[in-house]
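Appendix B. Raw example, untouched.
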Amino acid sequence: MRLIWQCLSVSLGSIVLALALSQSTTAIGQESQTAPPATDQSPTYLRDIQPIFMGNCSRCHNQQSRFVYNWLDYKTAYADRWEIRRRLWDSWKGSYYKEAMPIANSPESLALTDEERATIRNWVNNGSPRGMTPPPDGPKSKAERIAIGRRLFTSICAACHQPTGLGRPNMFPPLAGSDYLNADKNRAIQVVIFGRQGAVVVNGMKFNNNMPSFPLTDQDIANVLTFVYNSFGNSGLEVSPEEVKILRSQPPAPSRTPAPKSMFE
């Protein structure tokens, strides 16, 4: 009898253990089905890299450039990705013989952060994916659009026009209290869409530099211009995506080339 009870106890223990393991496995399986999938945080061109290039490299690497590659275009940047990595990371670290980019002590070099350089390095190391364009945002209030525009201005425009909007003498015109900006909203929109080449007088000072066109959406352009118009002592105008869309479909205005003498010195 004692032997029978021992065998029975062992059998019952095995059954209880098997049931516990079965319930545990089921619970784990249910957790794995309900848990959200892991998110790939590797840098992508459209989400992470293109904004860095627009803010720190576009004065040289743009579609108007004749002698350097246009890094605002994904295919071009992808083809040149290893040289980009060498020049922005290896040369900066002193392990590549060519000059680091951006050029040392330039406004772009001073604005480019260590984290942004590491992001570009990681993008190249992880296969340089293009990624997806973020979906357009729904309608937002003017205050929300100004906040979004401020972020765009800081990451793209401030390297040349300065966070204060005062620009750089003899190089980049001021946006603060700009008579050129406030005189013609449509012209300002087209300058951001198509870029601008040639001389211009802003607040009584002459500037003769090029502004590249940026691969920004209609919403992006509307937001950043709404921020600029509502900052730096400007007129408080609002720019809508619909206005940008209409002007994008029209031929560029003569603002890309030297304007009539009445507008200049």
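End of appendix B.
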